[in-house]
Amino acid sequence: MSTISSGTTSTTTLVHSGDTTGSLVFKTNDTGSGGTTAMTIDTSQNVAFAKGFTVGATAAPAFSAYQSTQQPSLTANVATKLQFQTKEFDTNSNFDNTTNYRFTPTVAGYYQVSGRAEVASSVAFMLLYIYKNGSSFKRFTNTNTATVTAVNGSALVYLNGSTDYIELYCNQGGNQQLVNAADSTYFQAAMVRSA
């Protein structure tokens, strides 16, 4: 590990020490006692800041998927899990687009989650749910009875990076089929900061 420290006196303005671990550490306030770690770059090129934000090639999972094959009609007044068969991207292979249609990120953190569902004909209402670990977690509503054909929403969700997963559900006021297109019925999430 190579360490570069910024000192607080003219005699310790810049201190450099090294070893063979391959990591690079930046420190502040080095007064001869080691200083305070501000940033670390590990051997996988992940960058971690002391204030809790991590960036890197696999440190920030994100995905976007949409419904490309029409699932059976949604039953009126029943929350139904939505199926998203086509991935636009999945940076860490954490979205299952063939069996469970869920996102299970392997990095703990806070994720911005968004989605949209559109039906073929107007209904009395539409609800969109983000389910976390099998239960409703956040809900979005469209109740404009004259023109309801779609509902969308976005929320910030903490996911533990191991067992937590999210899915998208929809409830609507008629026995409708979803519009299966990339701009009509979709599900997305992106990590915005580490835990």
Helix tally? 0
By DSSP, the count of extended strands is 15
Mean pLDDT: 86
Strand content range = over 45%
Global shape: elongated
- Residue windows where pLDDT falls under 50 for at least 5 positions: none
Helical amount: under 10%
Q: Largest sheet, if any?
A: 6 strands, mixed
Structural class: mainly beta
Order of helices and strands: EEEEEEEEEEEEEEE
In what order do the strands lie side by side in the largest sheet? 2-1-3-4-5-6
State the distance separating the first and last CA atoms: 24 Å
Radius of gyration: 23 Å
Put the structure in a nutshell.
The protein is mostly beta strands and 195 residues long. It has strands spanning 2-7, 14-17, 24-30, 36-41, 47-49, 54-55, 62-66, 80-81, 86-90, 109-123, 126-132, 135-142, 148-159, 166-172, 186-194.
Chain-wise SSE layout:
Layout: E1 2-7, E2 14-17, E3 24-30, E4 36-41, E5 47-49, E6 54-55, E7 62-66, E8 80-81, E9 86-90, E10 109-123, E11 126-132, E12 135-142, E13 148-159, E14 166-172, E15 186-194
Parallel strand pairs: 1-3
Antiparallel strand pairs: 1-2, 3-4, 4-5, 5-6, 7-9, 7-15, 8-14, 10-13, 10-15, 11-12, 11-14
Structural account:
This protein is an all-beta fold and 195 residues long. It has strands spanning 2-7, 14-17, 24-30, 36-41, 47-49, 54-55, 62-66, 80-81, 86-90, 109-123, 126-132, 135-142, 148-159, 166-172, 186-194. Strands 2-1-3-4-5-6 form a six-stranded mixed sheet, with no helix packed on it. A five-stranded antiparallel sheet has the order 9-7-15-10-13, with no helix packed on it. The two termini are 24 Å apart. 26% of the residues are buried. The model has no long low-confidence stretch (mean pLDDT 86).
